[in-house]
Fold GTPase Obg.
Amino acid sequence: MVTFVDRVQVHVQSGRGGNGCVSIRREKFKPLAGPDGGAGGHGGDVVLVADPQVTTLLDYHRRPHRSAENGGYGAGDYRAGTNGADLVLPVPVGTVVKNEAGETLVDLTEPGTRFIAAKGGVGGLGNLALASSKRKAPGFALLGTDGWAGTLTLELKTIADVALVGYPSAGKSSLIAAMSAAKPKIADYPFTTLHPNLGVVQVADHRFTVADVPGLIEGASEGKGLGLDFLRHVERCSALLHVLDCATLEPGRDPLSDLEVIKNELAAYPVPEGQTALLERPQLIALNKIDVPEGRELAEFVRPELEAQGYRVFEISTVSHEGLRELGFALAELVEAERQRRIDEAPVQERIVLQPKAVDDGGFRVVTEGGSYGTLYRILGAKPERWVAQTDFKNDEAVGYLADRLQKIGIEDALVKAGAVAGSTVVIGPGAGVVFDWEPTMTSAAEVQMGARGTDLRVDPNGRRTNQERRAEYHNLMDAKAAARAELERERKAGLWEDQQ
């Protein structure tokens, strides 16, 4: 049964933005009183949080597909859709997040660090927000955009001050159990430890963490045994403690040969750029199992040779705890020195310079592409791509609104400069995108509205006459009657009429 996972692929999907609503308010004696469609809610984000209480990625190994909540749809009566809830995924401190190309996106080394792994979609505006003096009752709304979907690789690298390295059954788990409150599994067979164990060691006023790395063998850096999977947990450690078994019964093994094998594997493991090579870090040697008479004799025999190589050597016993106090103080001294060195060599933080957007930066660019079907002009940019995704192309008025927006940011002028003519193929967005034949004289539905400027027959259908209109109509009627009487009088005087008795 799997109990520890330090590398996993997670398929994340952020929430989709809700669509805006098309609605007209209805009141007594005024059935068309204006737009009241609300906007759609934004989709939820997928957020990774470094949580000190989480120690494994096992939960994501069992459930690799994670999705945030979608935004709610807008509704009439000015009701906006609800925003989708963010999906917060706790991960262990020391988790490295990589994209599908293997590029590192973030290294969550500090507790509480948050990283938005997938941004939620944007909710579409309702016709209430799209109304203006020229467009008093928009018959369309904007659609919500899709959230981001993709695969992320989570890789855990244990953060500890000291790494215990050595052959299987050398006593590393017993040592971390003796020096700290950790309770790792301990047995007398190789590869008992199948995942790194962390322990906190308190020595006087000094406190540091120790990582028990699973046993390394010859060829570990090439994938043999368990070393390749867990050598990454040594990367973040400040110092190394070689735990050498002085009471091994395996033929051909002794502390000196074990140390050479482990050093070769550590040297063969490539560390990330900018980090100190593993063998260049401070190192101590612990000769373990001196509680066994043969082990004590072997430790006393090899100690002078190890010290001649420049190592500080400690003879210890995890059973009787002999030598552990001296070893603890020596490790604390190394850790404190390394912490101070990091503080002294910490790079000066660069000042953040905020640069305003250039005046001629329209937020898009036009790329000319040639193909077997002729030249096409591709428009790339966050704004036009989002606007296209929010447009309902089944609605002519919505298409006209899109044309207005594109024209306002200068896309037509940019197409002319790029050499586009009427009928040229234009693509908005990467890949297939949205393809259309460009017509420079494209007009929007707002420009063909009926009625005077600032009016809309769909919202103002009231046919009642004003007092001024009634007065003018009355005067016209009186003028018509007076003209009719004058015409009759003229005909009578001309003798066209005869009086009848």
